[in-house]
Design goal:
Blueprint (H helix, E strand, L loop, with lengths): L1 H26 L1 E6 L4 E6 L4 E6 L9 H27 L13
Antiparallel strand pairs: 1-2, 2-3
Length: 103
Amino acid sequence: MKNVMDLQKMLKTAKEMQDRLQQELAVLRVEGSSGGGMVSLVLDGHKALQSIRIEPEVADKNEIEMLQDLIVAAFNDAAAKVDEALAQKLGGLGGGLKIPGLF
């Protein structure tokens, strides 16, 4: 019976930690940029786009492909930073395990 109680307590603690992490991810803001800062954007901890800034000189209709590439690069930069922040928040929780879908 004691083992069942310990398991329930561990599950409750894990759920509380998960809820806290979800709240932290919702308010986390990470900026990524490309083109020497010509394009920058902000993602939240769930990698949802919050804002984007594009310098006017990059918005040339003859260079639209370059602008698209800069946006993708800025997003990837920010997404990598979100992954890094998440790894730091999780710290030793996973014992160094790489959890699929998180890293």
